[in-house]
Inverse folding.
């Protein structure tokens, strides 16, 4: 379980999040929504300790352990993974090489190359990604959709317990979107993982069926609800929310 | 027919014709003449200064792959020819002061030259790379691209002189020179996958040095890089 309490986050001198509280229990899907520029991506990057974001106060605990001051790789190796909105290119570093190094670092065990390659090939089949991508440089020469599928390859190999997903739908056509969303749902069900997804895309939410919808505005979560809240947002936008469809923080934590 | 040969170079002149060769250069001064289609993969085993001249003949085609972790300074001159094509890919790992002088001269028409030099500087390395493309008067339809990059893992001074000496109106020429430390975004990305900063730096540095080569040459130099980076 991830618990964020009274978090204040700055970028430089500017406060992006203030009094930010969020609890993500095991085996649950949470969706974070909000107007553009309110800091939705900030929370994902802050949890993973992006050096551009400073935690001024507050705590982040994961499975009872305070991870507020851990390094990014230490947090990742606790089982938290971030799928970025725009996964970057790393020239000369292949998916296989990175994943083999990451798994070896995480497990501190020798990686059986035969099993490793077989698993990569099986995942490529599952997510409709050519096997040639295994030995391609990370995201190099890949379209937006291919990059997102490439991140799914990393997801299925690294098997995190909590996945933070930032606008995965950007750059995806409708067919790719369905494949990605179904793969995420299958992953969540297979490993009883938790997901925090930032998206406004109704197609992806229709497949993922989040347990909770959170609205981020004015530097913190102003409202939490379920499907009805999503309907309200899709119908009326963020300025005319129907408070009747929201649940209080105490209800949510129960 | 294309043959693949390993050549130990002990003489100062070498002519290579339609071949794929692996070169181990033992001399300090060498002139190579290229005829037909040639791929040179250089894997020199001993550290020594090198004064290398590559003469391209008419209609010749050359891919030259070169990697080393030597301390010695080097001078490389490539002489283009009519309708010649050359891709000179050189990456090196430096730990001490090192100077590289690299010239391309073209006195004919329709030549194509791409020069990629990628250097990784660590420990006490201080690098100076001077790369000059000289397209001479009265030539036409030549193309020249010069791409020089240094990734620095230390705080020493590094200098690149990217020179274009163009004496004709009908040419396509460009150059790119960058000196930078390891990209913070790349480090963060790999850290989110669970890699520690030293491991991420190693992967990024290796990838940088390997990225200009084909898979065949990459495989050969990976073992050297694993030990050194």
């Amino acid at each position: 379980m991830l618990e964020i309490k009274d978090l204040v986050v700055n970028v430089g001198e500017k406060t992006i999040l203030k009094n930010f509280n969020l609890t993500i229990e095991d085996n649950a899907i949470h969706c974070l929504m909000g107007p553009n520029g309110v800091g939705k991506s900030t929370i994902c990057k802050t949890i993973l300790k992006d050096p551009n974001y400073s935690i001024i106060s507050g705590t982040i605990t994961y499975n009872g352990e305070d991870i507020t001051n851990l390094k990014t790789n230490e947090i990742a190796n606790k089982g938290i993974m971030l799928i970025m909105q725009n996964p970057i290119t790393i020239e000369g570093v292949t998916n296989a090489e990175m994943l083999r190094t990451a798994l070896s670092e995480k497990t501190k065990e020798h990686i059986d190359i035969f099993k490793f390659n077989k698993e990569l090939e099986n995942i490529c089949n599952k997510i409709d990604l050519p096997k040639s991508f295994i030995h391609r440089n990370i995201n190099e020469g890949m379209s937006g959709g291919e990059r997102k599928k490439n991140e799914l390859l990393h997801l299925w190999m690294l098997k995190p317990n909590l996945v933070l997903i930032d606008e995965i739908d950007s750059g995806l056509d409708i067919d790719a979107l369905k494949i990605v969303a179904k793969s995420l749902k299958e992953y969540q069900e297979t490993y009883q993982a938790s997901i925090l997804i930032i998206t406004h895309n109704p197609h992806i939410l229709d497949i993922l069926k989040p347990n909770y919808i959170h609205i981020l505005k004015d530097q913190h979560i102003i409202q939490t609800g379920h499907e009805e809240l999503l309907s309200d947002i899709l119908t009326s936008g963020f300025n005319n929310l129907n408070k009747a469809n929201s649940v209080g923080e105490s209800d949510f934590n129960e | 027919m294309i043959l693949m040969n390993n050549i130990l170079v002990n003489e100062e002149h070498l002519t290579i014709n339609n071949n794929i060769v692996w070169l181990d250069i033992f001399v300090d001064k060498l002139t190579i003449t290229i005829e037909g289609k040639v791929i040179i993969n250089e894997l020199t085993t001993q550290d020594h200064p090198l004064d290398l001249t590559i003469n391209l003949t008419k209609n010749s085609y050359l891919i030259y792959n070169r990697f080393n972790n030597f301390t010695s300074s080097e001078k490389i001159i490539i002489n283009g020819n009519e309708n010649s094509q050359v891709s000179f890919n050189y990456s090196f790992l430096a730990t001490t002061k090192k100077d590289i002088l690299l010239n391309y001269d073209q006195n004919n028409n329709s030549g194509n030259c791409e020069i990629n030099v990628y250097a990784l500087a660590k420990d006490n390395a201080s690098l100076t790379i001077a790369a000059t493309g000289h397209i001479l008067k009265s030539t036409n339809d030549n193309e020249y691209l010069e791409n020089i990059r240094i990734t620095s893992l230390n705080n020493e001074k590094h200098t690149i002189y990217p020179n274009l000496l163009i004496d004709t109106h009908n040419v396509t020429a460009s150059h790119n020179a960058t000196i930078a430390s390891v990209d913070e975004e790349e480090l963060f990305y790999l850290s989110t996958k669970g890699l520690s900063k030293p491991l991420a730096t190693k992967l990024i540095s290796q990838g940088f040095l390997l990225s200009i080569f084909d898979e065949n040459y990459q495989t050969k130099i990976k073992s050297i890089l694993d030990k050194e980076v």
